[in-house]
Amino acid sequence: MDDDSRFEAFVAERADALLRYGYVLSGNPHDAADLTQEALIRLHRAWPRVRRKHEPESYVRTTMARLHVSTWRLHRRERLVWDPPEGSHLDALPSGVEQELWQALATLPRKQRAVLVLRYYEQLTDEEIAGVLGVSRGTVRSHASLGLNRLRSAVPEPAGPGPAGSAGPSAPNPTATGGRTR
Amino acid sequence: MSDHLEDSLRTALGHAAEHAPRAPGALSAHVAARSRRRRARAQTLLAAAAVVLVAGGAGIAVRGIGDGPVTPATGPFPAPSTGSASGTPSPSGEPVMPDPVEKVWPEAVWKIPAELPGGREFHPQAFIDDRTLLLETSESFEKADAIYSYDLAERRIRKIADISTPKGVFASGYTVGNGLIVWQTIDEADGDESTAPRTTEFWSVPVEGGRPTAIRTDRPLKGGAGKLTVIGDKLAFSLERGGVFTVPLGGGTVEPVPGADRHHILRWPWVGTPGRHPQDGETAFGELFNVETGAVDEAVVRPGERNVKCDVTACVGSKPDGRSAFFRLRDGSRERDIPGESFAGLASDRFRIVHLPVPRGGQYLHDPITGKSGDLGIRADADGSSIAVHAALGDDRLVAYPIEDEYVIIDLSKIGE
Prior knowledge:
By secondary structure, chain A is mainly α.
């Protein structure tokens, strides 16, 4: 299998999971598509080297997180190769608390949101988050604590994981929907 | 330590993720096409390196066009050697740190300030002559607004022309010939080749300066052009999808070059197929055609070899074992092992940029003919990020990359035997 087909296979296999990650990072489908597209273009450029190190997934996820918190977003320069559907998906979130949390996340500064997504969606340790965002562990902690406090005040009564009975017994791996293979 | 809020957040993020958009089926092809197009615009790479700092992240172009006719398989090669010359990191042995490029090839290396007077950044595009560089400045990301000539010896700069392009139109592909600077502008349309192909226009301005003039073509050019070359009073160009054409520098009829309908310009008069970015594991420029003499040349590729990238006289590729790389003539002779990978191909039919195992981010220029190597001086920063210098785009003789407040300029044509 040559490089092109390997890249193709990677995209075919992982694009949806990356879009899910982009979606929780950014909070909207258009930015999710934008982040994913840009990160994949950069992955393609770096493919031979990245593949050699067997880390395309972590490369692309790190790129997405950094793009999201960088000023790149203010200078978007390429059109999307497809139009993701617009519209609110809030109705689909199962519990009121989850909807409130999702809305409150949108009010957080980008770095705070990124830290929370990396910690609670990607399940990274603070050490790993520090590496991904290129900041110190202390910064990760302060962003996480500020972000959580803000969510706490926005969602006054977090009544447990919510009545999401369909999530299965105690949802040991709540990020399973993220499809991440680490 | 985990509280209800954290549990709710985990669940909410997991559920929310299920509502993300789905990827379109052709995403990979679109992404690859964008990536290649971007690669063709050298300045893009520099800007990308400044924006996202992923370890070893984006690249900078090393570019080139050749200098006149070359004959395949007649390069001035020394006798084949077994293994690498001293001072060269070997594929298997302990890496030896090469000396800096300016020490290894003092005759070929210039260092100039990385900013113009007044503090503007620039991107080197090509050599105008042995001591003059063509620079481009940008008003914003990828968007050229002027070109300059820079006298390397006197460190003097002179504006050649202002460049103004509408939104979504980008200048690229600068080449020099017949007293002119010639380039193309590509209208990106809506970015989707299948619905609205991009269109290409050509421009020229005298090297001494003036207002850019459009090289009018008798019909709109659909698709992006690849490499441009000035041949006497004509501009020769190949399209990214293949096909070599000429048009008078003063404008006029676009004429296909007979026998080169699938070809890409490699180094005039040599055109080849497939181009620099072949599909399906084909050999880059595996087949060459001399548009002046009609001569053809097919590069030797052995079973199991991969990523074979050829130039006018030589090829590099990965050996069937997948762990080592080779350099040899197109006819299969004078093969030798080379350090690093073959992905980037060759610059000026000979040189390669290779990554050092240590220090992080380090890269060196490797000459497989003499076995000499020179450290480019690039190092990873505190984040582990570094720029990657790429070979074989644009002016084949130019390697240019910034280090701190200087631009390193390497003229590959000055490196002797």
